[in-house]
Amino acid sequence: MSFDLISGIAKPLITGFSITAKRLGRKKTTVQYPEQRREQYPRTRWRHALTRYDDGLERCIGCSLCAGACPAKCIYVEADDNTDEDRKSPGERYAVRYEINMIRCIFCGFCQEACPTGAIVLKKDFELADYKRDSFIYTKEMLLESVKGKEESAD
Ligand code: SF4
Ligand code: SF4
């Protein structure tokens, strides 16, 4: 084997191993997900949730401003009137149906900014993967936080 050939094989190997050796002592930039998780940035925006007031009433008043602000047109709101016998929100109306197509959502947060009551918020839960397309249509029941003290919230 000629010297040039040996040098052509050995040089890149030595260069590669020396780069690896230099980096061995450095702090790792990766984590062993899902056992280890990085802390999320404070303004991280992922899974949506429909929030409630402390007394359990829904914040959403069915005004559809979130749907109007959504650039992906992935929010559907259907409103109905509250009655004294069956009051869902403090306002005149509430969302009888509220859906977000999470496949189309671009997580811009415009819906949260547009909402006058702070009802729709984007939380830090980023594990949204699923196997079926239908599972990505998030219904009001999926989005609405539990009543405090009854069940875990959707944080
Ligand atoms: S985060 Fe943006 S794209 Fe997603 S539902 Fe809200 S407004 Fe629409
Ligand atoms: S989430 Fe907010 S903006 Fe959207 S319908 Fe409800 S109250 Fe209106």
Indicate the percent of residues in helices: 10-25%
**How many strand units?**
5
The CATH topology of the domain at 48-143 is Alpha-Beta Plaits
Q: What global shape is seen?
A: elongated
So how many helices? Answer: 4
What are the key terms here?
155 residues; alpha+beta; Alpha-Beta Plaits; two-stranded antiparallel sheet; 4 helices; 5 strands; elongated; binds iron/sulfur cluster
Topology:
Layout: H1 3-24, E1 48-50, H2 65-69, E2 75-81, E3 93-101, H3 110-114, E4 120-122, E5 137-138, H4 140-143
Antiparallel strand pairs: 1-4, 2-3, 3-5
One iron/sulfur cluster (SF4) is lined by residues 60-66, 77, 95, 114-115, 117, 119-120.
In short:
With 155 residues, the chain is α+β, with helices and mostly antiparallel strands. It has helices at residues 3-24, 65-69, 110-114, 140-143, and strands at 48-50, 75-81, 93-101, 120-122, 137-138.
Word description of this protein:
It is a single chain. This protein has a domain at 48-143: Alpha-Beta Plaits (2-Layer Sandwich), CATH 3.30.70. 18% of the residues are buried. 23% of the residues lie in helices and 15% in strands. The chain is built from four helices and five strands. The N and C termini lie far apart (65 Å). The chain has 155 residues and is an alpha+beta fold. The strands form two sheets. It has a three-stranded antiparallel beta sheet. It has a two-stranded antiparallel sheet with strand order 1-4. The longest helix is centred in the N-terminal third of the chain and has 22 residues, at 3-24.
